[in-house]
Structure formats: structure tokens, C-alpha cells
Amino acid sequence: MEFSHVGLVTDTPQPGEVFVEATRVWVTDFLKHPYGIEWLRFEPDSPVTGPVRHQPHVAYRVQSIEDACHGMPVLIEPFQPLEGLRVGFYLSADGVVIEFMEYSASPFE
User: Fold this and answer.
1) Is residue 25 part of a domain?
2) What is the CATH number of the domain that holds 44?
3) How far apart are CA 96 and CA 28, in angstroms?
């Protein structure tokens, strides 16, 4: 497991944000932020509810989402927001929203 970024929820449009249709959320590229921040701005009709929509999250790059999330409550089942990337959201034992990111190709290419 390798730390990737911190995701913060905002209501303010951000420069360079892109739309993820699967969750109806606008996101920024954490690789372009000097401190590894991803901004998330949810559309009113986004299907995302609960902690993912209202709390920050900490994201980790993993080899296998299924191995990393073992025994954790699921907040959002794994899905593919971009080609070559699967993500899933889970809740840690102490209530932190965790995103696991599984790449089939390097995000740095």
C-alpha cells in the first residue's frame, strides 16, 4: 500500500476539474497539486451519499483492492472512473474514509 492523496469536498468549481460520469462528481488531478490534494465537487444528483460525499478521504495505491479492503465496510463498490484505474471507497475501523486505487497502467506515463 502506498499513500496517494487526500480528497477534499468543495462546492466551488476548481481549475482543471474533470467530470466523472459514474459518480457525477467533478475532480481535480492530485498529481498536479503541490500537496497531493484532490478536490471533489458533487453534482446535486450524484448517487454518492454518506461519508464519501461529506468527509475528506485518504487514498492509497494498492496492488489489489480486494486484498486491501478485507473486512472493511464498503462505502462505494469498486468502479472504473478512468481507463486503467479501479477505485473503491471503504470505512476504516476509526471512521476514516479510505479510497483504494488499483492501476492497470502507471498514472505517471
Assistant:
1) yes
2) 3.10.180.10
3) 21
